[in-house]
Specification:
This protein is 8% helix and 23% strand. The strands form nine sheets. A six-stranded mixed sheet has the order 1-2-5-7-9-11, with helices on one face. The protein has a four-stranded parallel sheet with strand order 6-8-10-12, with no helix packed on it. The chain contains two helices and 29 strands. The protein has a domain of 169 residues: Ribonuclease Inhibitor (Leucine-rich repeat, LRR (right-handed beta-alpha superhelix)), CATH 3.80.10. The protein is mostly beta strands.
């Protein structure tokens, strides 16, 4: 047989073998080697405890061109810090792992931030603290299960995790830090039994279902601002404080039940809001609390409310009917400015202080829409406060 024919046969055999491997399925993971890595003690590690890492990965090129990774990374120890990400033996594994299991007590500041491949995080039963930026900008992360042992979630911990879909916070968590889940644009639901910090869920544009448990007493400033998917809210008596701009710009919100006083602009710009129920615990409607709520037509303020601060309902252009409770004592200036559709106002007799000239943007008797309504001309001036 000539050398030319022999070479041709060998080439054909190699091509057939290659096609067979290209068409095969992902290899059996049980047959793959596993790597156990114990981080050595040394000068760079002097501030961190030693830990063992188990890594198992598989790589298949079924088409001959597309690489497919299914990597799992397990880290055990008492503390995890960003130092781990610069260790050469583990840096690449962290970058490509899809499932990350952490059997640690603390996930330190920025320890697992910017890991673009992570889809699922399993947190061990001994975890007590997730510190600031711990998992921020893990853009493929869609599932996290928090253990009951967890007591602290720091500022920005999951900010920018744009694939995360739910957040069920354990009752042992004493408070959520600032912007913990901000910009988690795929987040659909949140069950909260703890205080909510400033901007914690800001700009979570897909968030629809929010449940507040008995442990939630404070909702911070801008906590849910820009959450354009929320349609209804029930804030019970356990919620004692709602911060400024807490729900501003929630443009899909239609129904609201609230039993505590409202800070400045708490629900401003909620352009779909039509129905508001004020509970007995709501004593003050803060400045600009409902400004720009352009769908609000009928406003019946329940007993218990004592003060309506300035511009509280300014820009509510569809508002036609207002009924005040007997408990109301004060209406601030420009409280209803721009509400030019008002035709009926009831129950003003008990109000001690109001600004007739400025409450409705014009003098009461000069406003063509409400000029026929009888109003006490005494008690016009606001108190010096």
């Amino acid at each position: 047989m000539s050398r030319l024919k022999l070479a041709a046969i060998l080439v054909c055999a190699l091509l057939l073998a290659g096609c067979s491997s290209f068409g095969s399925n992902q290899p059996d993971e049980s047959a793959l080697p596993a790597l156990e890595y114990t981080r050595p003690e040394g000068e760079q590690m002097e501030n961190h405890t030693q830990k063992t890492v188990k890594y198992k990965g598989s790589l298949s090129d079924g088409s001959g061109f597309v690489m497919y990774y299914t990597n799992e990374l397990e880290i055990s120890g008492v503390e995890l810090t960003a130092q781990l990400k610069v260790e050469p033996e583990l840096a690449e594994s962290l970058k490509t792992a899809n499932v990350l299991t952490l059997n640690v007590e603390t996930v330190g500041t920025s320890a697992c931030s910017d890991l673009d491949a992570i889809r699922q995080i399993n947190l061990g039963e001994n975890l007590s603290a997730i510190q600031s930026y711990a998992f921020s900008k893990c853009t493929m992360l869609d599932k996290v299960v928090f253990p009951a042992s967890l007591t602290q979630i720091g500022d920005y911990a999951f900010q920018g995790c744009s694939s995360l879909r739910s957040a069920d916070i354990p009752s042992n968590v004493t408070a959520l830090g600032r912007r913990v889940f901000a910009e988690c644009t795929m987040l659909l639901s949140a069950n909260l039994d703890t205080d909510v910090g400033d901007s914690t869920f800001a700009d979570c544009t897909s968030l629809r279902d929010v449940t507040f448990g008995a442990g939630c007493h404070i909702i911070g400033s801008n906590a849910f601002s820009g959450c354009v998917g929320i349609r209804s809210l029930s804030l019970g008596a356990d919620v004692e404080q709602i911060g400024s701009h807490a729900f501003s710009g929630c443009t899909a919100l239609e129904q609201l039940s609230v039993e505590t006083s409202l800070d400045e602009a708490a629900f401003s710009g909620c352009t779909a809001l039509r129905d508001i129920t004020f509970g007995a615990g709501c004593l003050t409607i803060g400045e600009e609390a409902f400004s720009g709520c352009t769908a609000l037509k009928n406003l019946s303020i329940d007993e218990g409310v004592e003060r309506i601060e300035k511009r509280a309902f300014s820009g509510c252009t569809a508002l036609e009917y207002v009924r005040y409770p007997a408990s109301l004592q004060y209406i601030g200036s420009l409280a209803f400015s721009g509400a030019q559709s008002i035709t009926k106002v009831e129950s003003m007799d008990t109000i001690k202080y109001w600004s007739a000239r400025y409450t409705f943007e014009k003098d009461w008797n000069e406003n063509s829409n409400i000029g026929a309504v009888e109003m006490k001309q005494a008690k016009k001036d606001e108190p010096a406060v």
